[in-house]
Amino acid sequence: MDISTLIGPTLPAGQPELRAVTATTIFGAFTRRGTSGALGNDTDHALLLGVREWADCVLVGAGTVRAEGYGSSDTPTVIVSGSLDLDPSSDLFNGTVAVATPAHSLDDASLAPRREALRSAGARLIPTGSGSAHEVVDAVRSLGYTRISCEGGPSLYAALFSAGLVDVLHLTVDPSLSGEDGPAGLSLDSTDTHRFTLEAAEWERDSMLFCRYRYG
User: Fold this and answer.
1) Residue 214: CA count within 13 A, CB half-sphere
2) CA distance 127 to 136
3) 190 with 132, same domain?
4) What is the distance between the alpha carbons of residues 38 and 40, in angstroms, rounded to a whole number?
5) How far apart (Å, rounded) are the C-alpha atoms in residues 59 and 155?
6) Are the C-beta atoms of residues 167 and 18 closer than 8 Å to each other?
7) Is the entire prediction scored with pTM above 0.85?
8) Does residue 185 carry a pLDDT above 90?
9) Domain with 22 in it: what CATH number?
């Protein structure tokens, strides 16, 4: 399948656009046995890499980095973390990495060893005020990253969707279920309804479904 077809139309370079890329089971679970690795197929993986190539940076939560074992990437990575609980010896830090963290995490004396270890590993620590979704995205864009690919996890997705900050959602629906699936759905921070328009849907012989939704 042509990955550019799945990615679809994009805004001109320099114009801000945030895309979320995820795979779920047929009933909306994001993980199986604790990670997303068992979901999707080769095309889904190629789509993830294709959106990374389009993006100026990958935005991802620290929990997802730990669970999925993120490694070094040619695309800069911005990790959202309040605890700064990241392994500075990870291969991830061989690439360009920033850690977006609330202001209190930069002032907390008990986190000083973690801050120093991350800086020594080459990470840039960027303050995000109270840590709201808007402040996180503003901090990322202050680095010059206008095209953002968000790869989760669910809590970061929930914050971004609640704030209406996701422009395009790439959703792969894996037609499977398991007793080892994680929780389904997102716990949004607001009671507002956020509606997306289906732009395209493609599927493969294994019944893997690739949907592209645009906000509004």
Assistant:
1) 9
2) 8
3) no
4) 7
5) 13
6) yes
7) yes
8) no
9) 3.40.430.10
